[in-house]
Automatic annotation (TrEMBL):
Residues 3-103 form the YqgF/RNase H-like domain. Belongs to the YqgF HJR family. Its main location: cytoplasm. It comes from the Bacteria. NCBIfam families: RNAse_H_YqgF (TIGR00250). SUPFAM superfamilies: Ribonuclease H-like. The gene is ruvX. Could be a nuclease involved in processing of the 5'-end of pre-16S rRNA. This is Putative pre-16S rRNA nuclease.
Amino acid sequence: MVELVFGFDFGIKRIGMAMGNTLTGQAQPLAVIKAIDNAARFQQIGDLIAEWRPARLIVGEPRHPDGAEHEMTLRCRRFANQLHGRFNLPVELVDERYSSAVIASRRGEIIDAKAASIILQQYFDDHANHNH
């Protein structure tokens, strides 16, 4: 069965979103959420979930290069838990240590959505490798 999947690159100021499906295993940028407060952020995310109806959500989990956690690791985990609680969809965390290295600069809206697509692509690639 083909599943539509959303990917998230969580940031304090912006949240990048990407989408893809399990048939093609290709991720593409979808949107950047720039809402000021949590209620507005989750409203915008909820609108996109209602429109596209993804089967699961993937959230990038940042860590130090050595794998150690830092403040944003915990924030991203909390965001993932909030997504699960609000939308009752499966949420998986993906190690995003190397996704930002693929993008030269992580400033600006286009970069946020592109970072989300790299995180989601990593999820697809990891699952393709496990299924063969």
